[in-house]
Structures
1.
Amino acid sequence: MAAASIGHAYLGVSGSGFFSAEKNLKRVWIRCCSPSVDGASSSSLRNRRPRVIGMGSKLVGCGSAVPKLQISNDDLAKIVDTSDEWISVRTGIRNRRVITGNENVNALAVQAAKSALEMAEVEAENVDLIIQSSSTPDDLFGGAARIQKDLGCKNAWGFDITAACSGFIMGLITATRFIKGGGYQNILVIGAEALSRFVDFTDRGSCILFGDAAGAVLLQACSADEDGLLGFDLNSDGSGQRFLNAPIKKIEPEATSSTNGSPMFPPRKSAYSYIQMNGKEVFRFAVRSVPQTLQVSLEEAGLTSSNIDWLLLHQANQRIIDSVATRLGIPQEKIISNLANYGNTSSASVPLALDEAVRSGKVKAGDKIATAGFGAGLHWGSAILRWR
């Protein structure tokens, strides 16, 4: 597939992940003032801190949240023609979490974000921006603003990204650009999904794969010497959209008017279909494209795979993860994987796995992590990160 990279040439990043003119770049202070207008919303009157342009960014906190209900392979075998052995051998998945009752995407996102702020020891009022990646928000118009309210981030604004399994990586890179070019200090990046809402539980090819979860990280401005983004690469190819999608349902047109033959109005209520996937094509795409994008990011960072402490990929299929590791020459002991416990949680999978690895003591300060997201769109991308 022809890839349209939006990474390096246009952003002018060098091997260090900074602008090529970094050595000549002076810090520029920008003071933003809000107009005093009667009746203005509180958000337009919030206090603004001076902004420093040209800073690096580093990961200083992470968090995650999962629903209470766990669905095992054996549970699925009761409702669809499958078995624990059939699922685990082909995917590496044994369990997944599914939202029930009053649980929702927003609540999971808020819980994950709170944990990230606590680890970073940053108050909610010091957050400047919230970027949420979700293809399954509680509201069609997105959830970042609601998260901003529920967290109490009174000095922040937020927006949503819809890029499925690559969304978190895209949000992460976007956040670093706001820090570098916009002078932002603290940015929350959240991946939160409830894919179970769009799974056909009569289709054993797809219902075995997906679960619900949320993960978050806090990115913070830092000096160039501390920069935690060492290299990145982002790509899209819409010609592969047919292999993984959840389109609007095709509904038969209403009966035409008896007067002029025009369609009746108003139209029927819209709804999205179940997730539709060509597993073989998605697998082929992943094992080909992911090593390539990681190699581009490694080259930009001036590193080789032997310099990497951890490989953290989107948790889609253990065979994909193992294949990418083999192609890059990364040993099994350097792979971070929690796929067996949670399944494919789309944009939540990378921050969820990172949070568990950090809190367990596996990932330590200074460790270099090669991470990648890939999936619907088709979108794919990678980043070489340094933890803390």
2.
Amino acid sequence: MASMNTFKVLFFTTVTLFFVAASAAECESKYEGGCHDKTMALKYKLIAIASILVTSMIGVCLPIFSRSVPALHPDRDMFVLVKAFASGVILATGYMHVMPDSFEDLTSDCLPDQPWKKFPFTTFIAMLSAVFTLMTDSFSIAYFKKKLNITSSKSGGESKELEHFGHGSVLENVKGDAKEVSAEQLLRYRVVAQVLELGIVVHSVVIGLSMGASQNPCTIRPLIAALCFHQLFEGMGLGGCILQAEYGTKMKAIMIFFFSVTTPFGIALGIGLSNVYSDTSKTALIVEGVLNAVSAGLLNYMALVDLLAADFMGSKLQSRMKLQCWAYVAVLLGAGGMSVMAIWA
């Protein structure tokens, strides 16, 4: 899989953001106001790094270690409800947190009216991002599916490629065509997990950098609690996808690591660049706004198509109306809870 190349591209983009955004402020920061204390702000930022790191690790690891709890196995009803709740969180993150941040950046008074206030760049970029995510999703699955079929035909149906995709009990005791279908579904889960993590990581870096550059403890203090809850539930959604993808220990550790450290990493770099970085410089606003719009489109597509639609249109929920109703309740609770948190975020 091309996950490592994806992360290299992501961090190249992040580093570019750090350097191009280091320019002088042109108007009052959205994080500044009457409460301005550099020493106190640094104290809160250090607390934020530790608390968000721990919360992120707990959130993403909970589903992965749920195999030791029979009720939370991927084939049980409780797992379906937890995943539906987490999918609602991811959906609200895209619509209620990331997209409004992009609107705020790209329609800022610090930017000229032409063209930034004459054209809805946020929704346009989010739309293109969703289409590009669909293309990535489709091409990735088609490529690996073709590779899977070629390998299967060369080995008479019992391919080592299938064994490579199968870990644990997902493909055990499965023969013939059913085994190939299971391998294709597993491949689908892996593509979903990697693309979803990419969208989450992009937003995490941007919001971490913004917090790290702020000198306003009155803003940082409530943000710590909001981001901890945000990372906890978003991590549960990603962790559920990683669990279904049946990765080996090394790949699980890599994905857990990147999800857990990106927001603290962004905060730490924001602290280091706080003397030269301005969240109201034109370049910073444009770059952050564009990245947030890209992340919003990606997260909205993944939540609606690859997570919610895939589950609700699947045979398990379609054949059990009562479970489907409870799953919708879980989605609304997750989306509603994350939407309410937008007040403090």
3.
Amino acid sequence: MRRRRMGALHVVGEPRVSFQHQQQQPAAAAAGSKSGGHGPVVEEIHGLLRVYKDGHVERPPAIPDVPCTWGATAPGAPGGVAARDVVVDRATGVWARLYAPVAAGAGAGLPVVVYFHGGGFCVGSAAWSCYHEFLVQLAARAGCAVMSVDYRLAPEHRLPAAFDDGLEALRWLWHQAALPTGTGRATAAADEVSWWRARCGFDRVFLMGDSAGANIAFHVAARLGQGHLGALSPLAVRGAVLVQPFFGGEARTASERTMPQPPRSALTLPTSDCYWRLALPAGAGRDHPWCNPLSRAAPRLEALPLPPLLVCVSEADVLRDRNLELCRALRRAGKGVEQAVYGGVGHAFQVLHNCHLSQPRTQEMLAHIKAFVSAR
């Protein structure tokens, strides 16, 4: 994890970035062959990702990183939200950004949200300003502590690396739950996470993510239910929040085939296809269980131990129909599922603010998440 200088932070509006997959034209491929000796560009998502024939990967800084500071303040959130970066696994380089409200009355026993960012498994960071802003709001408005996990990315680390990193994040959290929660000066000097840990109610943990991060949250929840980490006590996972979950399949849904997308859409069908080609194991089809949990190759949902779920669906998202079908399948399997559909907005509206309805719909989403967490 890169160390960052501590200082004042002011969150500003996000640039509107295009996330379109681009097919390489012959001239572009020829130019790519001269770029740093890596050969032609074989996959590209404009402004976000460029993959060369020799495997070299470039990720242009489309969205700025923001430094971490204990003084981070959410717009309109009196009292502010404290944040800090910590190492989760030195062997893999996985780290996390921790958040907790510092407003009066935000004491111990806050529910803990373990969050996984989106980006098709291939791009994104817990340090991206759009995620930092959203999670500061989540901590302040939902009254929770947040652990935002910066997992390894594909294609350098194809699935299941992100799922493994999600489990490792829960293992780190389990160790934190076993440590003292003192907040005295001597304790804080010896353990820089003690202040955050003292705010956490580890018996109320929620997995959450958007897009690819929601896919990670789903599969981590399933693995935990199957006992991949053994006994979790004193941790208790009470639910999972899946925001526009990024799943796929060989057969196209109606929204994937026909949903028109504006030029600045965060996810189009070609972009989705590109992400899956880079994230799944080489040669895997789109009905691989990590992509399509409803395929014949996937474990039966009836036998899958899952906590209660809140699925947040965007009306103008190409994934809309796939998300709704997942909700129906989970209900048929006897799982506890709540769904919320946000009208007039597309994929990742809550972090990209790329629609005039983004802000009011984001506040609706935060209210739904708060109610879901508070009920458990």
4.
Amino acid sequence: MDGGKKAEQPHGDVAEEDPGRQQRSMVDEADGDEKAPRRSKRVASLDVFRGLTVALMILVDGAGGEWPVIGHAPWNGCNLADFVMPFFLFIVGMAIPLSLKRIPDRGRAVRRVVIRTLKLLFWGILLQGGYSHAPDNLTYGVDMKHVRWGGILQRIALAYLVVAVLEIVTKDAKIQDRSSSGFSIFRMYFSQWIVACCILVVYLSLVYGIYVPDWEFRVQNTDSSNYGKVLTVTCGTRGKLNPPCNAVGYIDRKILGINHMYQKPAWRRHWACTDSSPHEGPFKNDAPAWCVAPFEPEGILSSFSAVLSTIIGVHCGHVLVHIKSHTDRLRQWVAMGIALLVLGIILHFSHAIPLNKQLYTFSYICVTAGAAGIVFSLLYVLVDILNLHYVRAPAMDRHERDAGVRDGRGGHLRGVSQRVVLRGHQQHAGKAKMAPSLRFGFFSSVDESNTRLQVYWVRKHVFVKVWHSTRVGILLYVLFAQILFWALVSGVLHRTGLYWKL
């Protein structure tokens, strides 16, 4: 019965509650049991969390260049932008137990996971691998000599593949409908935590154990005075977590190739590179060579470590499936979130393991996953328990509408068009651009003779000039002309039932 039509109904990452709760008697509701979650096909707070994370992504990309506290940290540390990726991974992980629980056939579930992974990889490489490499010059296409293999969607795809297959392989049909509480959920999925520990041990062993030799690269940035020169970076060490000599970058250079890595990493704003740090600015005269070198923030080893964020999200999904009480769910999520936050902060400020998004260190995993758990808990209270109407916008959820729920409460601020918005996401904040695709195809050289397109007329004349402040104008532009705009677009698409489903 579980393999029938209901398994195909949800779109995207499903956020459904345990179906056993739908069988609660009307007597329980009449008794006014405060702990009993209300009967709903979807966990609205997870949809809201997804939508807010998309909005956060647009905010940090658009305003991060002018507001460093919003943009990515140049190296160690954790700014607002550094929470976007782990929040997405946490959401993906939390949705996995909910989306796979109604597919009892393991072979069919694996096929579904593999197909979705391939779709994400395809769009990730197409959109971030080089397709829109110079939108200001109206130059489009994929430069096969410098295509970027890493990226946001690629990391999400790999984390989803590993954790979803792990969930399929390790789940026991006998415990899927079993209620639980306390630490018994850890025991029920003990094998998944064993895998998580193995991932952590392998990551730490490689990061601190691999010898990083000296390396060289050719400067590809045409704006650099060293364009075309071959520069050498001196390392000859192991166990370092500094920008030039870490094992994460070394593995990516060896496997991906230095020409296939991100050319403008956040470390360009490092204090060793520019006096404008944490803003981007001209390099110092004595800036080290690595300042103009590529680095892949979504590389192989860091993506391997990022799987842990998704596994933590899966655990929170298991709590949602097996625990029926609002209070007990919140106790689990909040306790784990606080514990992870405290552990990560201690590791960072004791200088044991610094917070670092680009290396995806263990302390960074703890802080961001802990924050994700606490933020989700807050949204769960507001949306699924208190049912505050103003958090739910702009349209009725499709599955609620299909189920006959027409109480006028409206839908959720959801990520229904998040994959469309993702195409505007660039790694270094403040550089996200939307421009028409006027050239297509694969090519081996860049044509620089195109006329530049002025895409920010509205930002300059409507926002910046009115407020007489570039920083305030750009922030308001992002909030109203980008986030609000895409929210309205998503609402229209959602109301008309148009979805881009991966």
